[in-house]
Design a protein that fits this description.
Blueprint (H helix, E strand, L loop, with lengths): L1 E6 L5 E7 L2 E8 L5 H15 L7 E7 L5 H18 L3 E4 L1 H8 L9 E10 L2 E8 L2 E10 H13 L4 E5 L1 H5 L1 H8 L3 E3 L9 H18 L23
Parallel strand pairs: 1-4, 4-5, 6-9, 9-10
Antiparallel strand pairs: 1-2, 2-3, 6-7, 7-8
Helix pairs in contact: 1-2, 3-7, 4-6
């Protein structure tokens, strides 16, 4: 069963085609100013390179934020249009969950926690905390220093290492290093927007869970919820 997954929530956009959770074709776009122009050609390129037609797809997936309106709109509009046209399920993926899944392929310590962060400006972040694919802290928006207190508690409870990913972590790197010193690891800038394997893995996991629970009907374009973020200013 083939799933086409789209991500335009970060600076690097992705289109990934997978079969039963394994990526068979993918492309990444590193110029966020041209995502609107390049998205549909990227979709067509990925399908063509895997000798796949639109009619061969069993489902679609798209990241739903947190992310900017401009960025998310491109991927969401593309995915919704295809879902309506092809009459196939559309799976929404939390961007932070996708970023966290990107760290599961790196062979880090088993007792690590993963903290994906998206920059909300003025030392605020959209963040979540994950461990072995499980959510320890749901998506929230707060000052980075306050979010670090949640992480500190988990370290006190026995976690050995914190893996940070996302532009929010990089924007607040000095503060984080001051708090956690040698207990933190930062995913390099070039990998901070996730990867196609993680995007496809989360999409397939959600699809098969819903299929087993007989709830695939809930994955449709009309029910898709998108989390557009607000950039905080000094006046708030």
């Amino acid at each position: 069963m083939k799933i086409l997954a789209i991500d335009t929530s970060c600076k690097t956009a992705m289109v990934s085609l997978s079969e039963n959770g394994t990526v068979i074709a993918a492309v990444q776009l590193h110029d966020n100013k041209t995502h609107s122009v390049k998205m549909l050609p990227a979709v067509e390129y990925v399908l063509s390179s895997a000798d796949t037609k639109f009619e061969d797809l069993g489902a679609l997936a798209v990241t739903t934020g947190p992310g900017s309106y401009t960025g998310l709109r491109i991927g969401v509009t593309t995915a919704k249009t295809l879902s309506y046209t092809l009459k196939i399920p559309l799976i929404g993926i939390n961007t932070l969950e996708m970023l966290a899944a990107s760290c599961d392929f790196g062979g880090e310590k088993a007792n690590s926690i993963v903290c994906p962060m998206i920059d909300a400006r003025n030392v605020r972040v959209y963040g979540g905390i994950y461990k072995n694919g499980k959510v320890l802290q749901e998506t929230c928006v707060t000052e980075c220093a306050e979010f670090c207190k949640k992480i500190e508690q988990l370290l006190n409870d026995g976690a050995e290492q914190v893996i940070f990913i996302g532009d929010g972590a990089l924007a607040n790197k000095e503060l984080i290093l001051d708090k956690f010193a040698d207990k933190c690891v930062f995913v390099p800038t070039e990998f901070s927007c996730g990867n196609p394997q993680a995007l496809s893995y989360v999409a397939a996991e959600k699809y098969f869970e819903a299929a087993e629970a007989d709830t695939l009907a809930e994955f449709d374009a009309q029910n898709l919820k998108v989390n557009y973020y607000k950039n905080y200013t000094d006046s708030i």
